[in-house]
Amino acid sequence: MATKQINLKLPSNLYDSAESFAHNYGYRNVQELITESMREKIFEKSDFDNSFTEKEIDLIDSLISKSIAKGKIADWKEIAKAPE
Q: Which of 3, 18, 50, 58 is deepest in the core (most CB within 10 A)?
């Protein structure tokens, strides 16, 4: 697949937020975040998508495990019986 290079200008506060987001959510850099964001925006077929990326699933699992450890959620069974 051929690639094209672009030059993108962002306001400083947007870049700083993107850099922080990329770091916090496991992206290698802002470029990877922007590429994935564009793919999601361009190629999604509907406004609501129930599928999750592997990174999102890992993040959800981590949040649930931490919530259980802190006593915010009793266990996985409690999650399973939660209303949709």
A: 18
